[in-house]
């Protein structure tokens, strides 16, 4: 299995990029580079996220291979971009936002589980694992905050400029959130890989080795970020409004502080 994984990795990293773009998207180059530098992983396909306008036949069910790409961007777009694309439509145009997706082949099942844990904690809740008949272990990192809206039928526009402007704003907001999740995933991935490496370096009887037997517990999650913001708001309110509890007994004040600190742990 070890030799087979090494062969798979070498073959995958040496072959040509057959994607439409032909290269790794700029916003995830650092993520792909980090994973491919590890002995336990390599990436098989990726997309940083994109806003696309596709023109297809009604019966095609908007399958990309049977459609014309009127517009595509891996960055934010403008309403003029979409209007220009729609002007070329002769069939059924659909606006889509497709979030970040990454497929990673893993050496062992434990490596795949670590990757899956990092993905889930980073906000990619649609992630999963597959084990093929040949022994290939793939972690798919995906999220659910996509967008798909029909905008024309048989070349006839179905929406006004005001609504197209609204959809542009919505798609751009999703792109911004997508980039935040990618950043969070990269940070959590670095932390998890560092902890895993340290764990392997520990001797079995080393005093601190037991502390590293569990997955890293400092992965930054969306819930944790929201809790921090909530605590800051409550602290500001205490400073602005002096009440009797501020001058109460010391044990009460300590308990309140402990409650706040608990949200950070």
Automatic annotation (TrEMBL):
Q: Give the catalysed reaction(s), semicolon-separated.
A: 4-demethyl-7-[(3S)-3-amino-3-carboxypropyl]wyosine(37) in tRNA(Phe) + S-adenosyl-L-methionine = 7-[(3S)-3-amino-3-carboxypropyl]wyosine(37) in tRNA(Phe) + S-adenosyl-L-homocysteine + H(+)
The protein's name: tRNA wybutosine-synthesizing protein 3 homolog
Q: Which family does it belong to?
A: Belongs to the TYW3 family.
Which species is the source of this protein? Seriola lalandi dorsalis
Instruction: List GO molecular-function terms, semicolon-separated.
Output: methyltransferase activity
What's one Pfam family here? TYW3
What Enzyme Commission number(s) does the record list for this chain? 2.1.1.282
Purpose of the protein: Probable S-adenosyl-L-methionine-dependent methyltransferase that acts as a component of the wybutosine biosynthesis pathway. Wybutosine is a hyper modified guanosine with a tricyclic base found at the 3'-position adjacent to the anticodon of eukaryotic phenylalanine tRNA.
Q: What enzyme class is recorded for this protein? A: transferase
Any coiled-coil regions, as ranges: none
Which Gene Ontology terms describe the biological processes this protein takes part in?
methylation; tRNA processing
Q: Where is the composition biased (Basic and acidic residues)?
A: 214-228, 241-250
Could you tell me which Gene3D superfamilies the record lists for this protein? Answer: tRNA wybutosine-synthesizing-like (3.30.1960.10)
Q: Where is the tRNA wybutosine-synthesizing protein domain?
A: 7-190
Its UniProt pathway annotation is:
tRNA modification; wybutosine-tRNA(Phe) biosynthesis
Keyword terms, alphabetized: Methyltransferase, S-adenosyl-L-methionine, Transferase, tRNA processing
Q: Where is the composition biased (Basic residues)?
A: 229-240
Region annotated Disordered, chain positions: 203-253
The record's listing under InterPro entries reads: tRNA_yW-synthesising, tRNA_yW-synthesising-like_sf
């Amino acid at each position: 299995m070890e030799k087979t994984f090494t062969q798979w990795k070498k073959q995958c990293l040496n072959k040509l990029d057959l994607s439409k773009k032909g290269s790794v998207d700029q916003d995830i180059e650092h993520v792909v580079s980090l994973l491919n530098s590890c002995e336990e992983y390599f990436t098989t396909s990726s997309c940083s996220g994109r806003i696309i306008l596709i023109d297809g036949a009604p019966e095609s069910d908007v399958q990309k291979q049977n459609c014309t790409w009127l517009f595509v961007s891996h960055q934010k777009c403008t309403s003029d971009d979409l209007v220009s694309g729609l002007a070329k439509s002769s069939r059924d145009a659909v606006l889509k936002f497709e979030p970040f997706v990454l497929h990673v082949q893993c050496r062992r099942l434990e490596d795949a589980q670590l990757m899956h844990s990092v993905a889930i904690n980073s906000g990619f809740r649609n992630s999963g694992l597959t084990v093929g008949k040949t022994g290939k272990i793939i972690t798919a990192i995906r999220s659910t905050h996509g967008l798909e809206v029909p905008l024309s039928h048989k070349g006839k526009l179905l929406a006004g400029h005001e609504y197209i402007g609204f959809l542009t704003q919505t798609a751009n907001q999703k792109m911004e959130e997508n980039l935040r999740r990618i950043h969070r995933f990269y940070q959590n991935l670095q932390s998890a890989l560092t902890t895993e490496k340290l764990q392997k370096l520990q001797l079995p009887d080393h005093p601190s080795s037991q502390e590293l037997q569990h997955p890293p517990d400092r992965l930054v999650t969306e819930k944790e970020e929201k809790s921090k913001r909530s605590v800051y708001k409550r602290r500001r309110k205490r400073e602005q409004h002096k009440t009797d509890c501020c001058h109460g007994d010391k044990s009460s004040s300590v308990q309140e502080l402990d409650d706040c600190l608990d949200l950070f742990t």
